[in-house]
Inverse folding.
């Protein structure tokens, strides 16, 4: 038995040393989202909203720019996240607000992401990935029994660490969202016609997630 043990150990460490040289091309992230929302012109945060619950899901693919890792460690790529979902329910930070009313403020974004990434891989299946992406999104909000929506231009920067297919990551999102609200002109002109008014919001916050690469 001892005669076979040494060759088996040598074989095991040879495979380990020549393990995965780059992370998987496809990725899927599921996690918790935190977000702060305020009016763009409200520089003092007088009517700032902070989320009390949130969730995120996104999936995409990395297109590696080199056939083999640089120096057997570095991989450079372009990330294409074809689905990026985010949901948050807010509570106001101002104590004058009614907590029950705050539960009616909910927000979601549906979008995609694209941007460069760099990946460091070491023998044994360990890898660390860093990225910066632009994330154009469709923003939706439900507040005070009214629905509004519009375009959101967001940026995402993050870092994830994986062992083979499983890992953990954290990222930050920031940007602005422009929402169109319906107005009843009857209160203004007496004609009873509907009109829309645009309002810009600034949003920012981290997301932590389980990362799967395959």
């Amino acid at each position: 038995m001892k005669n076979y043990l040494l060759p088996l150990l040598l074989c095991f460490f040879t495979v380990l040393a020549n393990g995965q040289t780059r992370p998987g091309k496809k990725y899927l992230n599921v996690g918790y989202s935190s977000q702060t929302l305020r009016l763009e012109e409200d520089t003092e945060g007088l009517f700032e909203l902070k989320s009390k619950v949130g969730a995120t899901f996104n999936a995409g693919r990395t297109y590696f720019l080199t056939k083999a890792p640089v120096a057997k460690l570095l991989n450079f790529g372009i990330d294409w996240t074809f689905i990026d979902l985010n949901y948050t329910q807010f509570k106001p930070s101002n104590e004058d607000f009614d907590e029950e009313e705050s539960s009616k403020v909910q927000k979601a974004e549906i979008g995609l992401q694209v941007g460069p990434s760099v990946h460091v891989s070491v023998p044994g299946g360990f890898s660390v990935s860093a990225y910066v992406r632009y994330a154009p999104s469709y923003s939706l909000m439900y507040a005070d029994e009214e629905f509004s929506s519009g375009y959101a231009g967001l940026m995402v920067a993050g870092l994830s660490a994986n062992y083979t297919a499983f890992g953990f990551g954290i990222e930050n999102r920031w940007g602005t969202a422009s929402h169109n609200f319906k107005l009843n002109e009857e209160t203004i002109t007496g004609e009873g016609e509907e009109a829309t008014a645009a309002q810009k919001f600034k949003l920012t916050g981290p997301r932590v997630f389980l990362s799967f690469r395959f």
Observations:
- The beta strands are 26-33, 36-39, 49-64, 74-92, 106-122, 126-143, 146-163, 166-184, 194-213.
